[in-house]
């Protein structure tokens, strides 16, 4: 599974106890579709938001139990992941030079300038 974090296998109850963010989407034809993005293909639906949210919990449990029984890695929810605060970006030399000049004009390091620019944007 993409973006799965490799960890030592935990008991099934551990994975069933994890709380994953749920995406609730109003359907164009009525009702709601729900999805857990970290669990690929884990979808459900319902006529009301309450029904859809109840249905996704059953789908989540079945998804995790099936993946566990098949020996597949089960991704952790985003809220459980640890981030180092560091990543490497490749870019054209010209862009690198342009960003470096902008940082210098603002009397800050390139790293500080980039963090500032990235924080101005919504992800």
UniProtKB/TrEMBL annotation:
InterPro entries per the UniProt record, alphabetical: Arc_rbn_hlx_hlx, HicB-like, Ribbon_hlx_hlx, TA_system_antitoxin, TTHA1013/TTHA0281-like
Pfam family, one: HicB_lk_antitox
Matches recorded under Gene3D superfamilies: 3.30.160.250, Met repressor-like
Domain HicB-like antitoxin of toxin-antitoxin system: 20-120
Coiled-coil ranges (or none): none
UniProt GO BP: regulation of DNA-templated transcription
Protein name as catalogued: HicB domain-containing protein
Organism name: Dehalococcoides mccartyi
């Amino acid at each position: 599974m993409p973006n799965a974090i490799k960890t030592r296998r935990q008991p099934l109850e551990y994975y069933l106890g994890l709380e994953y963010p749920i995406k609730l989407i109003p359907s164009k034809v009525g009702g709601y579709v729900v999805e857990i993005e970290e669990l690929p293909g884990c979808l459900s639906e319902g006529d009301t938001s309450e029904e859809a949210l109840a249905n996704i919990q059953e789908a989540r449990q079945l998804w995790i139990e099936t993946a566990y029984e098949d020996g597949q890695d089960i991704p952790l929810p985003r809220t459980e992941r640890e981030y180092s605060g560091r990543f490497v970006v490749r870019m054209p030399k010209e862009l690198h030079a342009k960003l470096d000049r902008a940082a210098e004009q603002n009397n800050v390091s390139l790293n500080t300038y980039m963090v500032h620019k990235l924080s101005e944007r919504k992800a």
